[in-house]
Design brief:
single chain, mainly alpha, Arc Repressor Mutant, subunit A, two-stranded antiparallel ribbon, 4 helices, elongated
């Protein structure tokens, strides 16, 4: 199961899974790369460090659900932005745009002109 659709890289998912299965377990790999992944997981609020500096995972039902909701919100915002392009299209084609003037139809291309005639 890939978590890339909710913003996790493959390595971040690889880093998070063992911690979910065994909170006292260790993540294996290049320590610098693992630390970057852990920092990202903290930024996403999937893990945090306790007062002793140990990594503590957030309940996946909470953390992953939050990321899913965030991605749905981002996707909906993007759909709203795209929908506004329809409004711009209607403005351009309803006589209010540069492509038309009162009583004049603009036709581009010789083939289209011949078809219209």
């Amino acid at each position: 199961m890939s978590l890339s659709s909710i913003g996790l890289t493959e390595f971040e998912g690889y880093t998070c899974r063992p911690l979910l299965n065994d909170p006292d377990g260790e993540v294996h790999g290049d320590p610098d790369v693992v630390e970057v992944a852990l920092a990202r997981l903290m930024q996403l609020e999937l893990i945090h460090r306790d007062e002793d500096g140990r990594v503590v995972t957030v309940d996946p039902e909470v953390g992953i659900a939050r990321l899913i909701r965030r991605r749905f919100s981002e996707a909906n915002a993007e759909l709203r932005r795209i929908s506004r392009a329809w409004e711009a299209l209607h403005t351009l084609t309803d006589g209010g745009g540069a492509g038309s003037a009162d009583g004049v139809e603009r036709i581009d291309g010789g083939g289209r002109v011949n078809e219209r005639i």
